UniProtKB/TrEMBL annotation:
<dbReference type="InterPro" id="IPR050219">
    <property type="entry name" value="DnaG_primase"/>
</dbReference>
<comment type="function">
    <text>RNA polymerase that catalyzes the synthesis of short RNA molecules used as primers for DNA polymerase during DNA replication.</text>
</comment>
<keyword id="KW-0235">DNA replication</keyword>
<dbReference type="Pfam" id="PF13155">
    <property type="entry name" value="Toprim_2"/>
</dbReference>
<comment type="subunit">
    <text>Monomer. Interacts with DnaB.</text>
</comment>
<keyword id="KW-0240">DNA-directed RNA polymerase</keyword>
<keyword id="KW-0238">DNA-binding</keyword>
<dbReference type="Pfam" id="PF01807">
    <property type="entry name" value="Zn_ribbon_DnaG"/>
</dbReference>
<dbReference type="InterPro" id="IPR037068">
    <property type="entry name" value="DNA_primase_core_N_sf"/>
</dbReference>
<keyword id="KW-0479">Metal-binding</keyword>
<dbReference type="Pfam" id="PF08275">
    <property type="entry name" value="DNAG_N"/>
</dbReference>
<dbReference type="InterPro" id="IPR006171">
    <property type="entry name" value="TOPRIM_dom"/>
</dbReference>
<comment type="similarity">
    <text>Belongs to the DnaG primase family.</text>
</comment>
<keyword id="KW-0639">Primosome</keyword>
<keyword id="KW-0548">Nucleotidyltransferase</keyword>
<dbReference type="InterPro" id="IPR006295">
    <property type="entry name" value="DNA_primase_DnaG"/>
</dbReference>
<keyword id="KW-0862">Zinc</keyword>
Length: 602
């Protein structure tokens, strides 16, 4: 085994796939495996399975599957070498300088690596400047006046950019970091008149922005002077995609998993303040527009999500949009209402952390109550027409409410407020629910069949069972190679069989995880994972193997006969009777072989 393969194998055996995936997906034990909601497609019922024995994962809904490396590549959008580096860091394994040169990596990997190294260097530099009295006095004074503790300054690695045009530029040059790459991540800029670089952040408190793994990918800077803008942020780059990041996620992850609760805020200062107040499950969406990627990260980890945005019109609109997005996955969504004119940072500084936990987070509204208040703002309830429209709006929202007790509760509130009989409201809701169900059925009828709707034919199931057994046993693989060879009808099954024959020929042991690691084609990896996690008895029955081989051979021979028959007809139609006779002879020979094989095994 080559050195690089040895290192990859060492990483694979050093980490537990349940622990790694558990950082992204809320997993629950079910029998020998763990299950959860698939992170790669939206679903309400868990179909994502993780096998600690085989160190593999597979989604029975969308077909995603693989091992540690493929999971990190998919979930983080990484190349193989980036995923290997990330997992090696987690396992405290040194990949060595030759790894990235020899790995099948993306040409941009080195540039991304240099960018993240430059960002990490400056995170340390800015933090050093803040915590050193000679340079950081203005920054420390501001943070102390704002009530930031030294613990939070350390936890979030807050820094300070001195009032200098070239402090960062000189450090980067001294350390041999590419200034061009640092310009691309928005840390320095080039002057137009002399093409010289200068520092972009000056006299600002620096808030490092971390990705989901806790790596610095950007900075936010709050001015201590009169410079505009008040907050200056890094632009998007190859390593920073704002819509895929939840600020503070790497620090909040453990608390979110423990409590199955996440608190969603707007900005990084709010998150730091909330953590300081003891709400350690707080994260921020880096702005007011929650993205699908951010929503997926939250719903994978928490059963309850509390949205705590500003109380102004923009914040309420953003809360409504975020709630709509988050509730798709069947989670409990609540809305924490802030007093007018205050954000979480202001509130905690004014009233303290305990009141924030009890009077804001603890008093959060149900999603339906929030929606009713939101819809109320859109209508003039003193107008009869608007009142009726408001009632219809609420009933429309209630059609999506699956809990009968809650539906009844809100119907009674409507009945009492507007003096409408409860029975008439129930009838109206029933009619609207029927219309919604009809629309959903229509969509279902017109939608194409999914993977799960298709029942594979017997010969295909036989091929799948054979391949699953072959991955677990070299003896079975040798037996299939001798009698079946490459006669699998499915192209992807045929390719997997060929790879298995070669895998064992190289002296490798029957290890499904190792076999999967040697497959570079994602489609083959997914299929191999699916087959590996098929429910089967531990020991293979000799009759089972013989029956499966007979099914595969029979299908192969039948396909060959059908193919020859088609060729024979074409030959006769074109007048080539010699070729037609030869094809007929071949067909007879194949039929005899098929009959002989069947009689031997009947």
């Amino acid at each position: 085994m080559q050195l690089q393969e040895q290192v990859i194998e060492q990483i694979r055996k050093s980490l537990d796939i349940v622990d790694v995936i558990g950082n992204y997906v809320q997993l629950k034990k079910q029998g020998k495996n763990y299950i959860g909601l698939c992170p790669f497609h939206s679903e309400r019922t868990p179909s994502f399975s993780v096998s600690p024995d085989k160190q593999l994962y597979h989604c029975f809904g969308c077909g995603a599957g693989g091992n540690l490396f493929t999971f990190i590549m998919e979930i983080e959008g990484m190349s193989f070498s980036e995923a290997a580096q990330s997992l090696a860091d987690r396992a405290n394994i040194d990949l060595g300088p030759s790894f990235s040169k020899n790995s099948h990596s993306d040409p941009n990997d080195q540039k991304k690596k240099q960018m993240t190294e430059g960002l990490e260097l400056l995170t340390k530099f800015y933090h050093y400047l803040l915590t050193t009295a000679k340079y950081g006095a203005p920054g420390i004074k501001y943070l102390e006046e704002r009530g930031f503790t030294s613990e939070m300054i350390e936890r979030f690695r807050i820094g300070y950019a001195v009032e200098s045009w070239d402090a960062v530029t000189k450090l980067l040059q001294k350390r041999g970091v590419s200034l061009e790459l640092m310009e691309r991540v928005g840390l320095i800029k080039k002057r137009g008149f002399d093409n010289k670089y200068f520092d972009r952040f000056r006299n600002r408190i620096i808030f490092p922005i971390f990705n989901m793994r806790g790596k610095t990918v950007a900075f936010g800077g709050r001015t201590l002077g009169e410079d505009k803008p008040k907050y200056l942020n890094s632009p998007e780059s190859d390593v920073f995609h704002k819509g895929s990041i939840l600020y503070g996620y790497h620090l909040a992850r453990q608390a979110i998993r423990k409590n199955s609760l996440a608190v969603l805020l707007e900005g990084y200062v709010d998150v730091i303040r909330a953590h300081q107040a003891g709400v350690a499950c707080s994260v921020a969406s880096m702005g007011t527009s929650l993205t699908e990627a951010q929503a997926a990260a939250l719903t994978r980890m928490a059963d309850t999500i509390i949205i705590c945005y500003d109380s102004d019109t923009a914040g309420i609109e953003a809360s409504f949009r975020a709630a709509e997005m988050l509730q798709k996955n069947g989670k409990v969504i609540k809305i924490a209402t802030m007093p007018e004119g205050l954000d979480p940072d202001d509130y905690i500084r004014k009233f303290g952390g305990d009141r924030f936990k009890s009077d804001v987070i603890g008093a959060s509204q149900t999603l339906m109550t929030f929606k009713m208040n939101y819809l109320r703002r859109k209508r003039n309830l003193s107008d009869e027409g608007d009142r009726l429209l408001y009632i219809e709006d609420v009933l429309r929202e209630l059609t999506a409410q699956h809990r009968a007790v809650e539906r009844d509760h809100y119907l009674r509130l409507l009945s009492e407020e507007f003096s409408i009989s409860l029975d008439s409201l129930k009838k109206q809701l029933h009619q609207m629910s029927i219309m919604v169900q009809r629309r959903e059925k229509q969509i279902t009828r017109t939608a194409p069949l999914t993977r799960s709707n298709r029942i594979p034919p017997a010969y295909e199931m036989a091929e799948r069972r054979l391949l699953a057994r072959m991955m677990r046993s070299r003896e079975i693989s040798d037996q299939v190679q001798d009698k079946v060879g490459g006669s699998f009808s499915n192209d992807i099954h045929q390719a997997l069989a060929a790879y298995l024959y070669a895998y064992y020929a190289q002296g490798n042991p029957p290890d499904e995880g190792l076999f999967l690691q040697k497959l570079e084609d994602p489609a083959l990896q997914r299929k191999a994972t699916e087959l590996s996690l098929m429910p089967m008895s531990e020991q293979a029955d000799e009759k089972e193997i013989e029956d499966c081989m007979r099914q595969v051979i029979r299908r192969s021979q039948s396909s060959l006969i059908a193919d020859r028959e088609e060729q024979r007809k074409k030959a006769e139609q074109s007048g080539d009777y010699e070729l037609a006779a030869r094809l007929l002879s071949e067909m007879i020979s194949v039929k005899k072989q098929l009959g002989h094989y069947q009689s031997e095994h009947d």
